[in-house]
Amino acid sequence: MTTSFVDFQHVYLAYEGSDDFAVEDISLQTGQGEFIAIVGPSGCGKSTFMKLATGLSKPSRGSIAIDGAPVTGPLKIVGMAFQAPTLLPWRTTLENVLLPLEIVEPYRSNFKRDKKLYIERALALLKTVGLDGYADKFPWQLSGGMQQRASICRALIHEPKMLLLDEPFGALDAFTREELWCVLRDLWSARRFNVILVTHDLREAAFLADTIYVMSKRPGRIVARKENPLPRPRDLEVTYSDQFTALVHELREHIGRVRNT
């Protein structure tokens, strides 16, 4: 790869007070606009990888660069969404989506001046994810899937170069989960920001990602890298194809070997 957006070079991390590594010898490069997924057993270091990628944790050894610059602290060019939407219950959907612009520079300084522009941006995002008409609703008035859509909008409102997703659809029913796969697919197709998706769902990884990485048990290492052979654009019909099933089975075999090691 001539131009790497995410560049991990032999990264190790041991948390303070521990002599054991949470992750070890992670080397990984992604291209501009690439969508990657990281899968592995519970406790393998997937969330630790996310903290390293955002600058929330510093490696004990090795180096990390994002968008061509060394990571020395928390990054402003990323958006994050988690399994729990964590919307503030006293704020409307629109107010929750706008929250990053109120607290993160350089938007915070200009929020009052540019508020009308930011509201227009937020309403456009909400419409894109199917929440048109729900801007004035509170979280308790939304379904779980709707709350997660709002959470993704909040992660994207400041137009980040990279979106990090930590089990974002894990708490949802299968039908809603697949709906949101398509929402995320369409957002990524339109904007081509980089995505790192951490998931236990191998079907989710196979449907969404360009490249899938399998991590070992703790200490987490990359034990397999699989380029997704499924052509884009993908719709849900592909999940019933032999090629899709073969990819999921291959990933499952990697996970099985990890668990038996």
The strands making up the biggest β-sheet line up spatially as 6-7-8-3-9-10
**Could you tell me how far the N terminus lies from the C terminus, measured between alpha carbons in angstroms?**
31 Å
Average pLDDT taken over every residue: 93
Outline, from the CA principal axes? globular
Integer-rounded radius of gyration: 19 Å
Number of β-strand runs:
10
| Unreliable parts | none
Amount of beta strand: 15-25%
Chart the SSEs and their pairings.
Layout lengths: L3 E10 L9 E9 L3 E5 L6 H9 L6 E6 L2 E2 L7 E5 L10 H11 L3 H22 L15 H13 L5 E5 L7 H18 L2 E5 L3 H7 L2 E5 L6 E6 L14 H19 L1
Parallel strand pairs: 3-8, 3-9, 6-7, 7-8
Antiparallel strand pairs: 1-2, 1-4, 4-5, 9-10
Helix pairs in contact: 2-3, 2-4, 4-5, 6-7
How would you explain this protein's 3D organization?
This protein has seven helices and ten strands. The model has no long low-confidence stretch (mean pLDDT 93). The chain has a six-stranded mixed β-sheet, with helices on both faces. Strands 2-1-4-5 form a four-stranded antiparallel β-sheet, covered by helices on one side. The two termini are 31 Å apart. Strand 9 and strand 10 form a beta hairpin. By secondary structure, the protein is of the alpha/beta class.
